[in-house]
Amino acid sequence: MKKIAFFDTKPYDRVWFERLNAELSEPFELVWYESRLRPETACLAEGADAVCAFVNDDISASVVNLLADYGISILAMRCAGFSNVDLDAACGKLTVVRVPAYSPDSIAEHAAALMLAVDRRIHRAYARTRDYNFNIAGLEGTVLRGKCAGIVGMGRIGVQFAKLCQAFGMRVLAYDPYPTAMDGVNFVPLAELLSQSDVISLHCPLTKETYHLIDAAALQTVKRGALLINTSRGALVDSNALIDALNDGTLRGAGLDVYEEEGDIFYEDLSDTVDRDEQLSILVAKPNVLLTAHQAFLTEEALESIAATTLKSLTAFFHGEHTDCEVCAADRKRSI
Ligand code: NAI
């Protein structure tokens, strides 16, 4: 029986993998580690045939080399992104597979939830009413119907988010260097999108070109009072510039599911720590910021799809078959 070592696991990861693995004609032995994969923990994978990792694991060259030394031939990322994998180091040593699209609706709906909650101050209302405070002053929102949504990156998730915005009666602008026509969506240059949109939502990948796409210069051009929603990758936004824009009213609010330095922070209970990330502490303390910890993917449907695709890729690999989920050289050029 082939053995898979899972890193950075939480109880919700195990449910669907165990259920679907039990249904396979050739099931795997699943070994669960809560530790993140990093040079110090890679030794846990010794004796396994495959490693399954997640968004904040460190799969740099030293980890790739250790895994290869332990005889591991495949790394299965149970996520879409792979910016944390050194693909150059992996080339010729480890096959890398991922789950390219497991549930675009999950992320699009979470982006919509952040948009609505930040706009209508739902997070503040929740905190107040739990404290038996029923004062509604300061919770003023806006009507989305007739407003303009600007979507950066019209791939699988951006398209679904556009449909949700259209359902709210919003006008939709989009920016994508590789545009694909969609009814009712007007593709415009990024500068035009930023200057016209009441809500800006990021759905492009993190690449060398998109690193700090939303920086101080970009924020100077946004429509005053816009909302910024980021469910894509934290480093698309310069956090210092974001804080300044929230401070001076350039942005009316931000809904964030990702943060550029989230790696050692998200998915952990750090409520007892005193030495905290300064920028993150500033952001979460702001009344007009709603931050979730990279949970946009976290739906029943997505978890089932992630487990099904990952097990299918691993089964195909160990039968010597090709899988569409393999990360190829072209992907390496696009991602950082
Ligand atoms: P996708 O590959 O289907 O679409 C990405 C789109 O971005 C493409 O249309 C591409 O042409 C466009 N793009 C590339 N460079 C761009 C640029 N410089 N400016 C604007 N657009 C650009 O990807 P998908 O599935 O829609 O995912 C988008 C992103 O969502 C992923 O890269 C990932 O970072 C993030 N994500 C976040 C999750 C979460 O739980 N928060 C879960 C899954 C994905």
Indicate the topology.
Layout: E1 3-6, H1 11-22, E2 29-32, E3 50-53, H2 61-69, E4 74-77, H3 87-90, E5 95-97, H4 104-120, H5 122-130, E6 148-152, H6 156-167, E7 171-175, E8 185-187, H7 190-196, E9 199-202, H8 216-220, E10 226-230, H9 239-247, E11 251-256, H10 278-285, E12 289-291, H11 300-318, H12 329-334
The structure holds 1,4-dihydronicotinamide adenine dinucleotide (NAI).
1,4-dihydronicotinamide adenine dinucleotide is lined by residues 80-81, 101, 104, 107, 152-158, 175-178, 203-206, 209-210, 231-233, 257-258, 294, 296-297.
Give a structural overview.
It is globular, with a radius of gyration of 21 Å. It is built from twelve helices and twelve strands. The chain is of the alpha/beta class and 336 residues long. It has helices at residues 11-22, 61-69, 87-90, 104-120, 122-130, 156-167, 190-196, 216-220, 239-247, 278-285, 300-318, 329-334, and strands at residues 3-6, 29-32, 50-53, 74-77, 95-97, 148-152, 171-175, 185-187, 199-202, 226-230, 251-256, 289-291. It starts with a strand and ends with a helix. The strands form two sheets. It has a seven-stranded parallel sheet with strand order 8-7-6-9-10-11-12, sandwiched between helices. A five-stranded parallel sheet has the order 2-1-3-4-5, covered by helices on one side. Helix 2 links the parallel strand 3 and strand 4. Residues 332-336 have low confidence and may be disordered. The structure holds 1,4-dihydronicotinamide adenine dinucleotide. 1,4-dihydronicotinamide adenine dinucleotide binds at residues 80-81, 101, 104, 107, 152-158, 175-178, 203-206, 209-210, 231-233, 257-258, 294, 296-297.
